[in-house]
Amino acid sequence: MAIDLLRLPTDSIVRPDKDRFLNEENPFEAMMSRFDRAAELLDLEPGIYKILRNPEKQLIVSVPVMMDNGDVEVFTGYRVLYNTSRGPAKGGIRFDLNVTLEEVKALAAWMTWKCAVVNLPFGGAKGGVICDPLSMSVGELERVTRRYTKGIISLLGPDTDVPAPDVNTNERVMAWLMDTYSMHVGRTENAVTTGKPVEMGGSLGRKEATGRGCMLVTKEALTHLGMDLNGATIAVQGFGNVGSIAARLMAQQGAKVIGISDRAGAFYNAKGIDIDAAIKHVQQHRSLEGFTGGDAIDAEELLTLEVDVLVPAALENVITTKNAPRIRAKVICEGANGPTTAAADPILDEKGIFVIPDILANAGGVTVSYFEWVQDRMGYFWSEAIVNERLGDIMTRSFGDVLQLSKQHRVNMRTAAYMLSISRVATVHRLRGIYA
Ligand code: GLU
């Protein structure tokens, strides 16, 4: 008897709750509303729909830390493994005062779709600690990292859950995490995390990878629209690792970055901002505060500048129903995770704005994380040229896959990206079946 590998038994198709997308605050709802739309178009059977709506594991840990002044603080940390059907869970850890479980769940789901859209053999995860790293000393940061790592150590491992940097964490934090894990298992285990310093198993090109991926897909999008990155005007919201590197690489391709912003302020220069000078300023002053390479403008104004490409590269829920009607960019490249609320999507569609969705646009980071994990496991390291070439292949191919699906189903790039990734995850669930 032929076994139908492609579908689980089903009696009715998915009918998602259409009102869910009205919530512009909760990122998990924003993720779910996009998921629902793609699930409906894919005619996803209820069994798989139910499985994919729920995170596999959610761990909440208390993180007691002795502060420099002798007081004990107790922080709260999360790690969510959303789905591991395609491979070990993969996703960053953020340190931020605004971290919530709902946010970490959404980010873990986004990692699942992101890894699948670029076809990496990983599932999705995310972690976070509610804390203000900017007000902490290096010693306090190290103790938070180590105690949090110990708290979630039952999940971690190169075959189970592999963290990486995210908002307010970096290669130094990953080095402490790797050391803490290695001390507990009694051997040096490089592949337990990615985004490490190059001197200790990190990959060349990893730090620049997310910004490079943004530049590559923007180039593809502009070519598709009959435009050129060379000479295009750009505004970048968020000038951290992703935004600053994307700006620099786009400028190197001949683009004119006329607006940049971070939490300290927004700056405009019609002649083009000197991105290297801006990066140097941030290295010296920790933010753009006091930057003189452009006129200070309002943060909201930056989002509505008349540009070819807008790159939101900071946090969630930046493009909302309130400002979407005023956005004048032709292309939006979502360097951040979840920068656009689900309710704002139809407004951007109506205006004919071509949105490169986060799960595709910022997938360069996790793609080179995958390369780092592979190199660590082989113990054989690649040149930066090879890393960049392979990253270029994956980003260009993935952009093409999503674009083709969007034309085929007459849907926007976001829905097409969700359809592609959900169908890949769903296929693995069908093939593996349900363990009983
Ligand atoms: N934090 C990054 C992201 O959101 C990288 C994750 C990773 O490399 O695992 O994509």
UniProtKB/TrEMBL annotation:
It holds the Pfam family ELFV_dehydrog_N. This is Glutamate dehydrogenase. SUPFAM superfamilies: Aminoacid dehydrogenase-like, N-terminal domain, NAD(P)-binding Rossmann-fold domains. One of its GO terms (biological process) is L-glutamate catabolic process. SMART domains: ELFV_dehydrog. It comes from Gemmatimonas phototrophica. The keyword NAD applies. Belongs to the Glu/Leu/Phe/Val dehydrogenases family. Keywords: NAD, Nucleotide-binding, Oxidoreductase. The keyword Oxidoreductase applies. InterPro entries: Aminoacid_DH-like_N_sf, Glu/Leu/Phe/Val/Trp_DH, Glu/Leu/Phe/Val/Trp_DH_C, Glu/Leu/Phe/Val/Trp_DH_dimer, Glu/Leu/Phe/Val_DH_AS, Glu_DH, NAD(P)-bd_dom_sf, NAD_bind_Glu_DH. NAD(+) binds at residues 210, 241. Residues 203-433 form the Glutamate/phenylalanine/leucine/valine/L-tryptophan dehydrogenase C-terminal domain. Substrate binds at residues 90, 114, 369. The active site is at 126 (proton donor). One of its GO terms (molecular function) is glutamate dehydrogenase (NAD+) activity. The record marks 166 as: Important for catalysis.
